[in-house]
Amino acid sequence: MKQFQVGIIGATGMVGQRFATLLAQHPWFHVAALAASPRSAGKTYKEAAGSRWAMQTPMPAEMREMVLMDATKDVETIAGMVDFVFCAVDMKKDEIRALEEKYAKAECPVISNNSAHRFTSDVPMVIPEVNPEHIEIIESQRKRLETKRGFIAVKSNCSIQSYVPALSPLRQYGIQNILACTYQAISGAGKTFERWPDILDNIVPYIGGEEEKSEKEPLKVWGNIQNGEIVSAASPLITTQCLRVPVSDGHTAAVFVSFENKPAKEEILEIWKNFKGVPQELELPSAPKQFIHYFQEDDRPQAKLDHNIENGMAVSVGRLREDTMFDYKFVCLSHNTLRGAAGGGILLAELLAAKGYLD
Predict the structure, then answer these.
(1) What secondary structure does DSSP assign to 331-345, as a single string?
(2) How is residue 262 annotated by DSSP?
(3) Which of 124, 232, 310, 339 is the most exposed place for a label (fewest CB within 10 A)?
(4) 2: confidence class by pLDDT, cuts 50, 70, 90
């Protein structure tokens, strides 16, 4: 694979920092540009991040003295320096939509961590092992944008990354109803315990917009391309509750599911064990070798013990058992800033590169 020059737009935020640490040693992608808000532009990455550096690993040495550019004013300059950008900005949704289209129209592909374009009908929202075929919509998007190279592709919300991968291979049995309660880490809010002491010994039963995303986004992921747009699946019926809990990293989901044709427990376990996707087939650098890890122990998966399985890119599942109201219930876990955010974005970029969309 050729070497791609990449930019990180929104480099000072928590997800931007995670992108930086993951890309520092990436075999295909080299960071050539960093950008952030006007207040950070002109400063070195080290100066701009300062005490806000939230990663457990140090800032990559090769990026410390890189001078940050203005994410909104320097679009053309950045587009001329890189092959594509990762975008993780903290702005209003309409501003993000406009900014990402500006990069795309500058012939700079955008792999976005933001939610602004998740329901743009010709923008693929991809979990690479689940719906890689959705990247084919890019050709339709390029026609709309009147671009040759530029496009926008997004990853889905971090909250669905734990349970949608486990449910996806079970759709062959006709999933009818899903109830999912997510228990989400504070890093999903861009926080650490030092920055958010009130979360200690506490649970917050509301995360703005999260339940709507968790109920709608799986249906787009499970949808199909029709006449130049992605049409969301009509079913199953999904209801969710999303809570913020005092955990640093790792979103846990308690999942309840009913089927049109109820499979045996042994069938489900065998399907999870053998579930592979295009990233595994292509041996993409960030792809976990075993996508779904099932724990036989009654007290697993646990966020503290299991969020980093396969470099935080695998999904952990446990406690599969029959339910009194639904057919089955189980527990899932994924790393919200790795599989759920920056790592998932990088895996999507690897898929796009392998399929020729970044050439």
Answers:
(1) EEEE-TTIIIIIHHH
(2) P
(3) 232
(4) confident
Residue 292's alpha-carbon distances to 17, 70, 164, 175, 280, in angstroms, are: 26, 40, 11, 19, 12
The answer to whether the Cα torsion of 200, 206, 210, 216 is positive or negative is: positive
CA distance 332 to 255: 8
Question: Does 349 score more than 90 pLDDT?
Answer: yes
- Which residues, in sequence order, are CB contacts of 281 under 8 Å at separation 6+? none
Token match 């709309």: residue?
144
93-126 confidence digits (pLDDT tens): 999 999 999 999 999 999 999 999 999 999 999 9
Annotation says 251 is catalytic: yes
Which one is catalytic: 87, 108, 134, 251? Answer: 251
Q: How far apart are CA 330 and CA 182, in angstroms?
A: 12
**332 part of the active site:** no
CA angle 252, 212, 330 (to 5 degrees): 30
Per-residue pLDDT band for 29 (boundaries 50, 70, 90) equals very high
Our measurement of the distance from residue 282's CA atom to the centroid of its chain's CA atoms, rounded to an integer in Å, reads 19
Q: Which of 108, 158, 242, 332 is catalytic?
A: 158
What DSSP string describes 108-134?
A: --EEE-SSTTTT-TTS-B--TTT-GGG
Three-state SS at 238 = strand
Half-sphere exposure of 237 (CA within 13 A, CB side): 6
C-alpha separations of 290 from 74, 262, 300, 318, 336 in Å: 41, 25, 17, 15, 18
The type of residue at 215 is E
- Say which amino acid occupies 44: T
CA–CA separation, 335 and 133 (whole Å): 24
